[in-house]
Write a sequence for this structure.
């Protein structure tokens, strides 16, 4: 385990900064997944491009 | 600094697991989808740009490239979610990562697949929006349920976790009015097994890589 020893390192790894970074990454990840897994797009263009990914990963496709 | 570490780790882990997913998919899954489309193309069910009659090398290359791209994007998206969870819980390293990957498999594949099993093209389904809403609700409920079950101390909360896990399945997935597929049953069985194995490998690899890179980047970043 990586244990922070100095107060400064502890402060940088404070709960609030970890929370902010984590929630930002989570939101970004969910937006990407929504595009890959759920958006159909004009003329189904996104559906067609991500078709085999959706079928493989059990995203509802049809 | 923390966000940068998260983003880099997710980008690298997601890209690698997306590439691995594509390789397994090409061997195990895509041939079955293509075969199912031959049954589909004999009906009037319009289906995008890749019907079975477009089997030229160019189209195959394009299909592979698009699948690679969307697999990598899915890999990065899922890696961001896993990296976020790992950072929140301070459980870096590849061993813990494997466990997070297993959790991801349960949340994003196994639980939704219990109600909406892997489908081949041409399989009848309920209205798409209903399926998508059930899928999202099930993934969310499974994530909350597992978190309560694993991380909460009081037994009562663990009990609530189990209940939350079960809610989507008690409510039931939206079903088509007439359950019938165009592809023969053995092909569908084969597809369900192949996609389950493919997703299991993808998720364990993804979790392992995210855990590993989060720790590695954390060790090397200036404090």
């Amino acid at each position: 385990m990586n244990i922070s020893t100095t107060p400064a390192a502890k402060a940088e790894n404070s709960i609030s900064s970890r929370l902010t970074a984590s929630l930002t990454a989570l939101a970004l990840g969910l937006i990407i997944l929504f595009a890959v897994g759920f958006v159909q797009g004009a003329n189904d263009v996104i559906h067609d491009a991500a078709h085999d990914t959706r079928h493989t990963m059990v995203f509802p496709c049809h | 600094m923390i966000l940068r570490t998260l983003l880099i780790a997710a980008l690298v882990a997601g890209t690698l697991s997306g590439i691995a997913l594509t390789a397994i998919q090409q061997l195990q899954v895509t041939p079955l989808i293509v075969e199912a489309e031959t049954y589909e193309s004999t009906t009037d069910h319009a289906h995008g740009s890749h019907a079975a009659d477009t089997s030229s090398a160019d189209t195959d290359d394009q299909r592979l490239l698009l699948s690679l791209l969307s697999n990598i994007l899915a890999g990065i998206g899922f890696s961001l979610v896993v990296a976020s969870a790992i950072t929140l819980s301070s459980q870096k390293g590849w061993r813990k990562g494997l466990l997070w990957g297993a959790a991801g498999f349960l949340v994003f594949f196994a639980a939704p697949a219990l109600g909406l099993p892997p489908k081949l093209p041409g399989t009848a389904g309920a209205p798409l929006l209903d399926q998508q809403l059930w899928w999202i609700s099930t993934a969310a409920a499974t994530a909350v349920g597992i978190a309560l079950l694993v991380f909460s101390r009081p037994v009562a909360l663990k009990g609530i976790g189990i209940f939350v896990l079960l809610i989507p399945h008690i409510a039931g997935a939206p079903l088509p009015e007439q359950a019938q597929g165009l592809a023969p049953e053995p092909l569908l069985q084969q597809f369900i097994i192949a996609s389950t194995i493919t997703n299991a490998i993808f998720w364990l690899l993804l979790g392992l890589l995210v855990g590993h890179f989060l720790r590695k980047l954390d060790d090397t970043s200036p404090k």
Remarks:
- Residues 28-62 of chain A form one domain.
